[in-house]
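Here is one chain, start to finish.
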Amino acid sequence: MQKKQMFADRLLAQMPSLRALRCFVTAARYESFTQAAEVLCVTQAAISRQIKELEDSLEVALFERTGRHIALTDAGRILYNASYLSIMNIAEAAEAVRRTDRHALTIAVSHTFSALWLSFRLPSFRKRFPEIRLHVMVTEHFMELDDLMQPDIIITKNPPREPEYEIEPLFHDVVYPVCSPSFHERHFHGRSLKPLDLLAHPTLNLSLLGRAQVCEHVDWRVWRNRFQQGDGSDRLVENEHLESNDYRLLVAQAEAGEGTLLGWHHLVHRQVEQGRLLRPVQDALEFHDRHHYLITHQNARMRPEYQQFREWLGEEVGAMMGEWRSVEIEAAK
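Its structure:
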């Protein structure tokens, strides 16, 4: 009996770290270090480092690497088959324990929503409900959540397919042009502008690259098609036209006076309120059929901390959209 115990202790001492195994299992599932990094909310370099340390400790290659493509070796397949089930059992047990903590709430949002909407509102929530411990995860992979990610709440335009989540609309899309006061002074001062006049000056454009729902994409060509008078002219100034799939970068460039940006109301209204951005025209695109959704895990709905977060979120969204309605009423007078 003592020998068996000593053998078990030796195995535990020689066992790879759980962090390294988690990185390995996720990379093996997706056959991609990049996607594993997205799922686990770490850098690709961190994934590579953990897997290298795992391979070094085992003294065997776990992946065959061909350019950017990776595939499991025979040794890697053996380790994956054993470690995947173990990792999932640990993850499920940890989730069960986590959900017994009546004061913890896990929220998943996109990078842009986290930076431009949630970040400056969180202090008010934490001050109002100091007893609730928030875990905020950022990801762009909402359509198919990894088994290792089971948040209580998701806020996104792209609802996941998992049946354990309940979905309801939170707010609809409102899009309007914004630019900095300095840009407006240089290009538009004293002019009575029409919607298409903006296209004759430098613009900032959100690209399609990496967009999850291409059918809902809005860029300056959508703006032009909405307001053009049928002459078919393309007034977009391509040589003065910055494009990126990082909306946070584009907002920063707009604030720096580099061009006019199509601003989603929920992401830029604070900058407009503070005077860092302004609306050069009062025209806007309003999409009542395109929503951000509040997506709730079925096990979270009756928990008091969820009810408190939902109440706070409803107040914040109500104030934000109420402000938009007030602006529209004032513009219509």
